[in-house]
Input
Amino acid sequence: MSGNQLSGKVAIVTGAGGGFGEGIAHMYAQEGAQVVVADINQQGAERVASAIGPQALAVKVDITSSAEVADMVAKTLEKFGRIDIIVNNAGTTHKNQPMLDVDEQTFDRVFNVNVKSIYLISKAIVPVMRKQGGGVILNVGSTAGIRPRPGLTWYNASKGAVNLLSRSMAIELAPDRIRVNAICPVMGVTGLFEAFMGLPDTPENRAKFVSTIPLGRFSKPSDIAAVATFLASDAAEFITGVEFPVDGGRTI
Output
């Protein structure tokens, strides 16, 4: 199935070597976008980009490094000539555990990957979008920043920051015709799943977490990708500053 909701657009998706990011990259390509598949895991990025085909470019990037972010932007402009959409999807967590048990190094990594990266990427990409006359920034926040689960306090805090900074960016960048929205998924079965649970991945433990989601299942990459496609498309041209839960009712 392919459409043209994003026809002629150029998108960068971070953390696109797997999980939600992979789903977003595939759907963007199906909807006509040229996609930069950015990930710290080069093999993952190349696997996804080659599955998409010639309209995708794999770029290895550590989003906590301003030099590597600048390189990612330069490679995108060199290959595709513009940047219409950036999806700040890459993220990490600490294991579900008592808040005082999370060591300082882990705390720093969570905030560097989840929050500082958006600062660095914005510094590199907002000037490009301003020059073009507009663009779309999608930050993958989390239901954790709206309705926190115990044991994930510092992760929850980082996603609360992502949710709020998305709204603040939306106000500040609106005169530049740059729309900014946060997508807030509930837990999905991605690489971070077991860390979120803080328990072995057994059917019993899954059932315990699923019971907190009214629609009765975890989120899937296709759920997140569908919302990311809509919010990046011209159909959403009047939508900015929303925290969009994709959560089966979890935050109600």
Observations:
- The first strand starts at residue 10 and ends at 14.
